[in-house]
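Study this chain:
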Amino acid sequence: MISAPTRLELIKKYMEQTKKILFCNCSYSDIIAANTKKRLTDILDQSGVDYRTIDDLCGLCANRDPGLTDDLANQPVTIVACYSRAVKWLFDAAGIPLPSDTEILNMREQTAEKIAQSLTGSAVMTQPNTKSDPPETKKTDWIPWFPVIDYSRCTNCKQCLNFCLFNVFASTEDGKIVVSNPRKCKTNCPACARVCPQKAIIFPKYKTAPFNGSDESVSPESISQVNLKSITKGDIYNKLRQRSCGCEPGSNSSNTGNSPQKLTELKEQLDIPDDVIQALTSSLPTTTKTISSSPCPCDCDCKSNSTDTPCICKTDGAPPCNCQCNEIGETQS
């Protein structure tokens, strides 16, 4: 007489017929509760389910880790991480588009028991393991904090490229905006996502929707847009003019003109961290750059010469032109 299969044997057979499991430990952030991660791994360990722990999915995608390609090869995959839109565009940023049959389970919203049930195909019967403490958030020289672009929304308006002062974004030869330097992004600063008209920029480790990749049904039109021009006129745009002329922050020929009041408004409306504000103000020189009084002859973003209009002097991501808008006069601040 053949004995009935044990519950463990059924689970293993179920997993062999379904998907490979990748579990993101999100080691450099506390966006996922430590107790949720611990409870889930306890259940999976006790159930005998085979899974691979990824230290931090954001970090692996930023580094384009070749192991991720191997993980997606030959069989369907279930990824236990965060919001599905964030995970999808993280893999896209790594140059590894997710197959259509990839399942994504969200620890930011689903309980450990619900996820475990999805993975094992049965209700959770195990007891939590109380022998070890929840994992602590790791310390590192670089926290994998950087933007990823949802290209289903992006219109290549280049506002992120023109706004970011840290060279995180770039434009390819065909004009596509890409995140070229993720490590240059300032930790916990989501400002570029908040000024994106289409809400196409995602920070997977950010705290609120839709900038963390959640609420896929939310349309850009339904979200209040930061009026960047009203809070930056004559200030942050001067820094953009400085960058369009090839001047790096802190150089003797550069100018920012950022007043403390305007920087405070930027901080409050764009959720810019204090250390980023300090990095900006610490590089302020004592000169002020002005533009010429002549109209701009090039086909750039500067259609007039009023101080509240940015002169980016770039077209389709091209290098700065040498038009009259880049003629500089200096006055002592």
About this structure: The mean pLDDT is 74. Residues 10 and 96 are 33 Å apart (CA to CA).
